[in-house]
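Practice problem: predict the structure.
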Amino acid sequence: MANNSGLYDRIYRAVQKIPKGRVATYGQVAAMAGNGNAARVVGNALHVNPAPGVIPCHRVVNSKGRLAPGFAFGGEDEQRRLLEEEGVEVENGCVDLKKYQFRDDIRLQID
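Answer:
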């Protein structure tokens, strides 16, 4: 993580910009953090999220809207519960990106 610590910090700040009731994809968060090619790094960063209650990693899904089967903080069922608590509908382990994807990512790009 030492080599990615600055990127991890930008990723965490980007994830904090995703509002309740919305989701963003790993690639979208990577772009918000200033490195659109770092979607896998986003996954790694979220897996070691130092403050899950503050950094809402449950709001990040894959490019098809699928929840993370290896969600580090309680598994896919917990990610589903947290999203549904915020009003996001989850069907068959997926979120409808057309309905719930956060679309203000360009304006909120992290420097």
